Amino acid sequence: MKTIIEPFRIKSVEPIYFNTKEDRLHILEKAFYNPFLIHANDVLVDLLTDSGTSAMSSSQWAGIMQGDESYAGSPSFSNFEKAVKEITGFPIVIPTHQGRAAEKILFSLLGGKGKYFISNTLFDTTRANIEFSGAEGIDLLCEEGKHPATPAPFKGNINIEALKKTINEKGAENIPMVIITVTNNSGGGQPVSMQNIKEVSSVCRKNKIPFFIDACRFAENCYFIKLREKGFASKSVPEIANELFSYADGCTMSAKKDAFANIGGFLAMHNQQLAQQCRNLLIITEGFTTYGGLAGRDLEAIAIGLKEVMEEQYLQYRIRSIEYLTEKLSAAGVPVMQPAGGHAVYIDAKEFLPHIPVEQYPGQALVCALYAEGGVRSVEIGSLMFGKYDADRKLIPAQMELVRLAIPRRVYTQSHIDYVAEVIIDVFKKRNELKGLMITEEAPVLRHFTAQLNPVK
User: Aromatic amino acid beta-eliminating lyase/threonine aldolase domain spans which residues (predicted)?
Assistant: First the structure.
């Protein structure tokens, strides 16, 4: 079928507040050209993130009403724990209030000066928690993943030869963990193949380095494996997920993505000693081990969402929806990541705005233009988010300058997506009029959340 049919019915709605372009230009100026600082009521279509922005199902809402709020030993935790164990096979499950809390606990224990964490591509909060511990994060994305316009089935893969070389150079004893993010968010939402995960597992076990999965979009990645990797077409998504996690020693997850929840996350693993250390820190920072900063109702919603996300009718709709917008933009000449990713469409801002140098943040300039033109909020994944400074305060740019349009799950209809395409294409037609931005104020860590910018004169 050519028409995308949403595999759900809508029984509750919330209003969108319309405004004019003149309004939005004033709003942008007041927000210092940073969409994170724009009030949600001033946004028409919000594609800033797919994290915590999903629409929950009637089953999840029913589960919320049944959530047990006991401080310790809640049956809602038992349901949550069972769901995670069935998917991952890990015997130890530690709830946290969201993914970055799991990262904070893990890297506080394993990080430190002189340590290196290796990944296909670390996302912003993961890298920040690693660096906050004093350690260094190293991205070893495969070569095809570095070229947005070049299609390849698994552009989220880690470079195996570079992994082996880095382990030899840094020393296995200085590498507390290798982390594979599925799908690779910073790399365009691209999937990682099962073969790549198996090879990483083999290298890690040979060198006695723990191997973890950042699993926030595990179901989307598993569906790509089913579609694109030989030998998996006849397997179910739960079967593929079981195999994927079987090669790892543990995982972190933000349940705000592929569990449709508005809050929540977890750590899961085999290592009893590490788990005990994590639980000790959890109790100090998050809460008791059977709620970890979450209400019982949230644990129920996550348990239900983890099962719903593996339904293939949903995943077919989800992946096809992203392809639809990618194809529409590509047909109009807009430079987008090829092939389409799992949760978002990524525009290559460097190709979209070649006249704006990286020092003037072309991705952020495009983000602001999309909001001004049509009230569409997106996020820059480039040198504002990942750029660093050298000793002379000169910008060390990110590997790619991308703009991510993250599609919340089960929230927008095809007409919303058609509108988004129209806005992007309209901006593309007058792209030569856009100007770069300069930072006027920034935080030392995760600056993109609160940075203030002004147009370059």
Answer: 46-422
